[in-house]
Specification:
It is built from 18 helices and no strands. The radius of gyration is 25 Å and the shape is globular.
């Protein structure tokens, strides 16, 4: 088998297990978690260190499980025929026996499930759906009777799970709300992550065709593949740039342009490199995603400190206010007072300095149907009394006046 890296590794040694888990790819799973946490601070003014660590460990454990399943299932299907050019697989090289690999895969699934249960307790039903789908797709990428790796949908899977779900799911865990703006960094990181897999399949195109793998590169051919790779690399910069004019505090997102020189030469490098050198292009694409994610995380932190009082950000770092919004947490409470509105932070209510958010009356009236206003009013009043220790709710004096007018009209008065 042709290989870029050939090492003398003792079977079942520490180096053998590292080759089986491929820890260098863990950063691909870590980057969206860091970005999602930074955006929670930027858009909602809250982040929690413990939730961040649990989310990070959960994402990394799923990545490790996926790597091990990929290695184990590839050898189980006897798909190695000596024509593949790439990193050696631990089970194929004999560094890890198939029985030991199977046990480790089972153990990794248990670990992922434990982290999934913990995150479900924190995030509820949306995180449960993401966790279950992540486990299923992580196993089915190379396992099962019809592996996803043998279809053109592998890149789409990376886009969804390592981009959209990872960033928005992390944001949900931190804020218990959803913000449409989180789809922008999610889509950006997902595209670069998909480009990594795309380069890997571009390198192994001839081998994949010989074993019956019909990947996206095999479906579109090398010529069109170069154009698709270029789009995956450059569109993220366009998406992040689109966010900057939305608010005066979003200018730090321009920091991601520092990664543009790294991206500019990659399409040409992919097109001109011989097959045995394409692995280097894949590693450079991984470095691009890490640098892009790092800059995006720093940008989110900068926007957070520009948009929210530092006392609020510090207050929620280790302990988040335990607030229950009935059956589910409405995104209104955080989205209505986010920097997207363009309202000056200095003009907002003083409760924010203590780590609480006051819900504007105008936002409530616009987003709640009229017939459900009374119910929502009482629920919000109860919430604010809990978190503010008896503070006056927004509508406490206005709503009884409306009720008196309504009764007066029903009784036939003017």
């Amino acid at each position: 088998m042709k290989s870029v890296v050939k090492k003398e590794i003792r079977p079942h040694s520490f180096a053998a297990w590292m080759a089986f888990m491929r820890p260098k790819t863990f950063w691909i799973a870590a980057a969206p978690v860091c970005v999602g946490t930074a955006f929670a601070g930027a858009l909602a003014g809250t982040w929690n260190l413990w939730i961040f660590l649990f989310t990070l460990l959960g994402a990394v454990s799923i990545q490790a499980m996926s790597n091990m399943v990929n290695d184990y299932a590839y050898n189980l299907k006897k798909a190695e025929n000596g024509t593949r050019v790439g990193l050696p697989r631990a089970t194929t090289e004999g560094w890890i026996s198939m029985s030991a690999a199977k046990k480790m895969v089972g153990f990794s699934i248990v670990v992922c499930s434990l982290f999934g249960i913990l995150l479900i307790v924190i995030g509820g039903l949306p995180i449960a759906c993401i966790a279950v789908l992540s486990l299923i797709c992580g196993f089915c990428y190379m396992g099962g009777p019809k592996p996803i790796a043998y279809t053109p949908f592998g890149e789409f899977l990376v886009l969804v799970f390592y981009g959209l779900f990872a960033v928005s799911g992390t944001y949900w865990l931190q804020t218990h709300s959803f913000n449409w703006l989180t789809l922008v960094p999610g889509l950006s990181l997902g595209l670069i992550g998909a480009a990594i897999l795309f380069v890997n399949n571009y390198r192994d195109l001839d081998h994949d065709r010989s074993v019956g793998r019909y990947t996206l590169v095999a479906a579109c051919g090398r010529k069109l593949a170069n154009t698709l790779y270029m789009l995956m690399i450059f569109l993220p910069f366009v998406f992040i740039g689109w966010m900057v004019p939305l608010n005066q505090h979003y200018w730090p997102f321009l920091f991601v342009l520092m990664a543009l020189p790294r991206a500019s030469f990659l399409p040409h490098l992919l097109k001109t490199s011989p097959q045995e050198k394409i692995t280097m292009v894949m590693f450079k694409t991984i470095q691009l995603e890490l640098f892009f994610g790092f800059l995006l995380t720093l940008s989110g932190i900068a926007v957070a400190f520009l948009s929210w009082p530092s006392t609020q950000l510090a207050a929620n770092l280790f302990v988040s206010p335990s607030v229950t919004f009935g059956d589910s947490a409405p995104p209104l409470a955080l989205r209505a007072t986010s920097p997207v509105s363009g309202e000056s932070v200095s003009q907002r209510e003083p409760e924010r300095a203590a780590g609480f958010t006051k819900i504007p009356a105008r936002a409530i009236l616009k987003s709640i149907p009229q017939r459900g206003l009374t119910h929502e009013y009482h629920r919000i009043c109860c919430l604010r009394r809990c978190v503010q220790g008896g503070g006056q709710p927004v509508f406490q004096r206005r709503l009884p006046q409306r009720r008196e007018k309504s009764r007066h009209r029903q009784s036939g008065g003017g």
